[in-house]
């Protein structure tokens, strides 16, 4: 039975990188099943994702140690992973459309990750989570209890052994400390219009301005609010017949689509950070 692994890496561009990777895999009796690379000429960086199988269960740690001399020679930042699904902890508030979509795709086997629990600052979505067989953790947040609440959130990340945290319309701003603790492993979703509308009732604002596009952006969480590296965006064209309620419905569809794609691509190790942006090997 072949044993699957994935190698992802980035490093300064120079001749011989792909040759070194393929030679290493050949020497370790591994067979490449998928290979993608991107040469960023602007930044002088190469990004690579190679999925491969080994005839023997070599092990992630052993492959990582064996590849390290190659990585050091080329100045690579790299990761070798096996086929264990990414463990995903979902954070929500009161709106359930993104959670519902993630649960559906998880049950259908198309999410790419394994949902391990739901955290919320409200009780509204407990029935949805428990109906899906997911542990529900209620962590109330007030201005006075926010530090303690965030500490509990990070505890839950550790207790559930979550690889990825998904803010599926979690309507609380994480502190800079929490963002740094979750860097590269927390994804947020938010509506994004042209132009952007902030504050209360964004869909009413969009209706008043007569927007023609409704969109959503899935991005990594950073201390800079809603400015983290973008993974995916979804845009849906609308017209003058869409009232605020219809706009909200279309917006929820866009949010669910963008978020589920971002979760799947991250879980499949297809997203590599590239400074303030990303490389996504679809």
Can you describe this structure?
With 282 residues, the protein is an alpha/beta fold. The protein is 34% helix and 31% strand. It has 8 helices and 13 strands. The strands form 3 sheets. The chain has a 7-stranded mixed β-sheet with strand order 7-6-5-8-9-10-11, sandwiched between helices. Strands 2-3-1-4 form a 4-stranded antiparallel β-sheet, with helices on one face. It is globular and about 60 Å long. The two termini are 26 Å apart.
Which features would summarize this protein structure in a list?
7-stranded mixed beta sheet; 282 residues; alpha/beta; 4-stranded antiparallel beta sheet; single chain; 31% strand; 13 strands
Summarize the helix and strand pattern as letters: EHEEHEEHEHEHEHEHEEHEE
Please, what is the average pLDDT?
A: 94
What is the CA-atom radius of gyration, in angstroms?
21 Å
Strand order of the largest sheet: 7-6-5-8-9-10-11
SS content category: alpha/beta
Low-pLDDT sequence parts: none
What share of the residues does DSSP label as strand, in percent?
25-35%
Biggest sheet details: 7 strands, mixed
What form results from the Cα inertia axes?
globular
| Amino- and carboxy-terminal Cα gap | 26 Å
> Helical proportion?
25-40%
DSSP strand count: 13
Number of helices: 8
Question: Outline of this structure?
Answer:
With 282 residues, the protein is α/β, with parallel strands linked by helices.
